[in-house]
Design brief:
Number of helices: 5
Largest sheet: 6 strands, antiparallel
Distance between the termini: 38 Å
Strand order of the largest sheet: 1-2-3-4-6-5
Number of strands: 6
Structural class: alpha+beta
Helix content: 25-40%
Length: 140
């Protein structure tokens, strides 16, 4: 996952993740595909982070997924509006997410939340955070 010359396939990523992280990866990607019109793109993020699957449209990134051995990390960048929404809903999140949020330094462009996911149960808060970032598309 760290060789910029070898772009991984979805099958490669799932094998690398191992279960139960691979099941969580499929779960999250399914959530993103059902609720958002972002086309995932696999790009090399650098030697430190390796390959990432980024959900981006019109120059705006919804989130980025970084495969790791036995887990993956999702990056969500919260701007001023998202920070305000999170603050309003903070009591509804797990203590782990609140602690991660509070320990994340606010930068000029907001807070960069790096959330490690090991299994599908870890995704409950992540899915809500994504909906704070962008409302899901309307269902037909």
């Amino acid at each position: 996952m760290f060789d910029d010359a070898i772009k991984p396939t979805e099958k490669d990523i799932l094998y690398f993740l191992e279960k139960p992280a691979s099941i969580a990866w499929i779960d999250l990607k399914s959530f993103l595909n059902i609720n958002y019109d972002f086309v995932p793109e696999t790009t090399f993020y650098g030697k430190k982070y390796g390959w990432t699957v980024r959900y981006r449209r019109s120059g705006k990134t919804l989130c980025s997924l970084f495969p790791e051995k036995g887990s993956f990390t999702i990056l969500l960048v919260f701007g001023k509006n998202e920070i305000q929404k999170f603050e309003e809903l903070k009591s509804e999140f797990s203590q782990e997410i609140v602690q991660l949020y509070e320990n994340t330094k606010k930068l000029h462009d907001g807070k960069w939340l790096w959330i490690r996911v090991h299994k599908s149960e870890d995704l409950e808060d992540v899915k809500v955070l994504i909906t704070i970032k962008k409302k899901p598309k309307k269902k037909d």
